[in-house]
From TrEMBL:
This is Peptidyl-prolyl cis-trans isomerase. One of its GO terms (molecular function) is peptidyl-prolyl cis-trans isomerase activity. Residues 5-81 form the PPIase FKBP-type domain. It comes from Alkalimarinus sediminis. Keywords: Chaperone, Cytoplasm, Isomerase, Rotamase. It comes from the Bacteria. Its EC number is 5.2.1.8.
Amino acid sequence: MSELPKVYSINYNLRNAEGAIVDTSSGGEPLTFLEGSGQVVKGIEKALEGRPPGSVLDVTVPPELAYGEHNPDHLQEVPKSLFDGVEDVVPGMKFQTNTGEQTQVIKVVKVQGDKVTVDANHPLAGFTLYFDIELLAVREATEEEVRLGYPISNP
């Protein structure tokens, strides 16, 4: 029988390059995730591998282990008519789209006449991420959790 993946529970702060907190679990529930499920960036999983509960880490995650580099192929010019029902489409607006497999957020970056340029890159694509992580608990996943692709209980 092969080893099952782990379920981790962490508290974290995500900081930008200037040191400002851009996301945190502080004041809320810890983040609990199934290893290998894509629920967190690969750089976090890699940093937690083999660590015992109680570990406190400063983790720097490069773009290739986070959301990838900013990809110019994810910029697309679309007809303004696709935004039917939106009174005034302006740069900075965000919309959810359904690609069939998943929901994706796109950002309007330019409006010119009847054309709108949208960016489907993750907002953190191209950025190095800086995490302060406290590993609260870790356990082996159940077969059901592996089948479902997410944890059904906290460690």
